[in-house]
């Protein structure tokens, strides 16, 4: 950064560059030099008693899992569906989330160190006062709280971060349930919100996935001859495949953590809450999921094959629930383009997958959820996209909906349509009261154009910390006037 400041060279830092669907390693502006921090792979500190780990940017979910396993440390990695080769630090800075107990990954960050635009180093007040251990244990520190400035921003290059890990509980289970009719969605939302309020700490994240989305995890994309005139799955085909794979209009997936007796009591509460709304309610431990896989191997023909596919996905999902990273969610990126994919080491960016994420926040009210679902179902097919909808709880007041825009990247027309479609969804959703919690690099300029006071504050801070506009220019903050 001292060299960059001397020669006025703009830079864009990346950790692993595996930010699938949000731009991967792409910068927000042209004419910048990438600073690749992927080789900084040290786990600098770990307190096995208190469960706080300090990592560099290149430490991936898989590396942290291996470190914990080698040491016999019974803690959970803050996993995501992005796979084991993605940076722990970068995901937290992007305010990513998962379904393990610390679902909001930035909330688990206690301390960080960053290099500023002039090459000076920012340390938290407690660390600079000679108490680095206290800085790792107490996220608020003392005096003004600066750590949040480095989240979703270009105010500095974060070179290390301390994160609180959750100890693996005595019992971890998933709860699966179905909504046999789309009309049950509103009632299910009410039940989910009530359970999240009543079972804090035991009930983790709750996902609601529409039939389309679950089919993308369990069935190959249909042959072109089965698609409609727009190249999409017609409703009767979606229903037919749903019957074949035993997939209801909506599927629920929830996580349970705690002592066995506490989880057992929570199961009873969940059964009561979903009575008359949820069907095929099932609680599974990793061991029980293994039995299901073994059963699938014994069944003949298509039934065994379909059950085996579902069982494999379920087993991988249970691994994630226990804080063990894997690639169970990555095949989605290859689904619509029917791209060949490796058994492991998937890299959607390098493999040419067409993927953009639209990830709006939705208030956890039945009417708001229905408004969003109707909006997505109407707009996505008009844009040439399959309406793959997931609703993931963010506490007991909000859902985040991760909607993948899948396309064939080899088709330039499809790529342009996807980019245009993403911007349309963001703006049309904004008018309805839905807005993303994070943005693709291509969407940030339009986002800034919608800002006034907020953009002004961000710009003033940036001018103070980075007067030459060197670090990730245009990233969630406007360019300095002289650079426009």
TrEMBL record:
Q: Give UniProt keywords alphabetically.
A: FAD, Flavoprotein
Coiled-coil intervals: none
The family database entries (InterPro entries) matched by this protein are listed as: Cytok_DH_C_sf, FAD-bd_PCMH, FAD-bd_PCMH-like_sf, FAD-bd_PCMH_sub1, FAD-bd_PCMH_sub2, FAD-linked_Oxase-like_C, Oxid_FAD_bind_N
Per UniProt, residues of the FAD-binding PCMH-type domain are 1-168
Which organism's genome codes for this protein?
Answer: Pelomonas aquatica
What are the TM regions of this chain, as residue ranges?
A: none
| Similarity remark | Belongs to the FAD-binding oxidoreductase/transferase type 4 family.
Q: What is this protein called?
A: FAD/FMN-containing dehydrogenase
């Amino acid at each position: 950064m001292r060299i960059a400041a001397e020669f006025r060279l703009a830079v864009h830092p990346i950790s692993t560059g595996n930010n699938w669907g949000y731009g991967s390693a792409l910068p927000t502006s042209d004419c910048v030099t990438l600073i690749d921090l992927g080789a900084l792979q040290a786990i600098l500190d770990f307190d096995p008693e208190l469960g706080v780990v300090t990592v560099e940017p290149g430490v991936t979910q898989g590396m942290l899992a291996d470190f914990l396993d080698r040491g016999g440390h019974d803690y959970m990695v803050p996993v995501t569906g992005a796979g084991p080769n993605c940076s722990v630090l970068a995901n937290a800075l992007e305010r990513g989330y998962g379904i393990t107990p610390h679902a909001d990954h930035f909330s688990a960050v206690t301390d960080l160190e960053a290099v500023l635009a002039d090459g000076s180093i920012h340390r938290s007040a407690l660390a600079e006062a000679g108490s680095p251990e206290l800085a790792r244990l107490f996220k608020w520190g003392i005096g003004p709280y600066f750590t949040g400035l480095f989240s979703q921003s270009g105010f500095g290059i974060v070179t290390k971060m301390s994160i609180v890990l959750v100890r693996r509980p005595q019992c971890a289970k998933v709860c699966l349930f179905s909504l046999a009719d789309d009309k049950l969605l509103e009632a299910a939302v009410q039940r989910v919100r009530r359970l999240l309020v009543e079972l804090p700490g035991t009930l983790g994240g709750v996902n609601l996935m529409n039939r389309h989305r679950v089919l993308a995890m369990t069935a190959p994309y249909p042959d072109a001859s089965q698609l409609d005139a727009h190249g999409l799955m017609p409703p009767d085909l979606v229903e037919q495949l749903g019957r074949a794979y035993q997939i209801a209009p909506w599927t629920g997936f929830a996580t349970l953590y705690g002592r066995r007796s506490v989880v057992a009591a929570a199961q009873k509460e969940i059964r009561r809450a979903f009575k008359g709304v949820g069907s095929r309610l099932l609680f599974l431990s990793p061991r029980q999921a293994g039995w299901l896989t073994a059963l699938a191997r014994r069944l003949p023909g298509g039934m065994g094959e379909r059950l085996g596919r579902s069982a494999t996905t379920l087993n991988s999902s249970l691994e994630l629930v226990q804080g063990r990273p894997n690639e169970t969610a990555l095949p989605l990126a290859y689904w619509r383009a029917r791209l060949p994919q490796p058994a492991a080491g998937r890299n959607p960016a390098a493999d040419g997958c067409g993927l953009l994420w639209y990830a709006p926040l939705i208030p956890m009210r039945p009417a708001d959820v229905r408004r969003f679902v109707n909006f997505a179902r109407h707009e996505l097919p008009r844009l040439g996209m399959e309406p793959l909808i997931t609703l993931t709880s963010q506490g007991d007041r909000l859902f985040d909906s991760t909607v993948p825009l899948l396309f064939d990247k080899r088709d330039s027309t499809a790529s342009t349509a996807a980019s245009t479609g993403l911007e349309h969804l963001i703006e049309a959703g904004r008018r309805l009261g839905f807005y993303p919690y994070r943005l693709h690099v291509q969407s940030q300029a339009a986002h800034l154009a919608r800002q006034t006071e907020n953009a002004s504050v961000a710009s003033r801070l940036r001018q103070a910390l980075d007067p030459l506009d060197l670090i990730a220019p245009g990233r969630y903050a406007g360019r300095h006037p002289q650079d426009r």
